[in-house]
Amino acid sequence: MHVFIAPLALILERWQGYPPRLLAQIGHPVMWIGKLLSWLESRLWKEEQSPEQRRVRGMVTMVLVLGTTLIVTLMVRNIVHRIPLGWVLEILLTTPFLAQKELGRAVQAVADALLTSLEAGREAVSQIVGRDPQQLDTAGVSRAAVETLAESASDGVVAPWFWLVLLGLPGIALYKAINTADSMIGHKNERYADFGWAAARLDDLVNLVPARLTAVLVTIACFFVPGASPSKAWQAATRDAMKHRSPNSGWPEATFAGALGFSLGGPRSYDGEVVDLPIMGEGETKLGPYHITRALTLYRMTLNVLLSVSALLALSIALG
């Protein structure tokens, strides 16, 4: 049934997003997962622990988070499947784990802010990136927005959809739990290098196929976007993706860069530490609001391609 729910969930979330009133009243499922992670970290992470102890406790944290997520979602799914028109409720329950509308809105906000001032652009981009924005010029802010758009197209949209199609509501919820844990504790710094090891490795694993699928979807979308090059998109993906320190992030970033003739990557600062990442793609480096808008056009067409694939998959199963 979840194969048929997937395209409807994509349509609903892209149109409606997560209602602000609901967010204010009860929060968001990802926030609930984050609170559970924070609570477990406060009790399991200790300053005096050895690296081995932290790694084991990090694994325990992931087992508890994923176990809780699995139990809750299996219970909810079983209840939903026993009530009339329960599939409608299941669609509503899956949409919060997709991020099509919010991602587009947040990146568009960066482009709009840059038209006002560089400082406004830095403030807007700080809402969607982990790097230090105060050292970024207009080109740096624009590259950060495009890079986030590309990477989040994979782990915020394609990957959740992929696990929804495979495993239904439990699958998409488990994916978001892993992805949330990676963003919170999967850092390679002194505090989390060992405690967040399991979260980071699991995130690499569950994004392995979706990241490469995103590159394929973006390449197909290029055929329908004026000025985008499908051949250069795929060439950049296969040439540059594996240069990235992440086994997955390079695929969507390199594909977007090649498609649009941008040059992404390079040095960036996180909490005062400069990380020198490889260059993705070839071409324009002095990006601005216009280039963000072009990337958003490609992103939206990629969403159209994903929806088409999802609908065709459901149709083929229905007819098969």
UniProtKB/TrEMBL annotation:
The gene from which this protein is expressed is cobD
Example GO biological process: cobalamin biosynthetic process
Q: How does it sit in the membrane?
A: Multi-pass membrane protein
Question: Which pathway is this protein assigned to?
Answer: Cofactor biosynthesis; adenosylcobalamin biosynthesis
MF term (GO), any: ABC-type vitamin B12 transporter activity
Could you tell me which Pfam families the record lists for this protein? Answer: CobD_Cbib (PF03186)
- Its recorded name reads Cobalamin biosynthesis protein CobD
- Natural source organism: Devosia litorisediminis
Quote the cellular component terms of the Gene Ontology held in the record.
plasma membrane
Q: What does it do?
A: Converts cobyric acid to cobinamide by the addition of aminopropanol on the F carboxylic group.
Query: Which key words are in the record?
Result: Cell membrane, Cobalamin biosynthesis, Membrane, Transmembrane, Transmembrane helix
**Can you tell me where the transmembrane regions are?**
60-80, 161-178, 301-319
Its localization reads: Cell membrane
- List the InterPro entries hit by this protein, alphabetically: Cobalamin_biosynth_CobD/CbiB
Source organism superkingdom = Bacteria
Q: Which family does it belong to?
A: Belongs to the CobD/CbiB family.
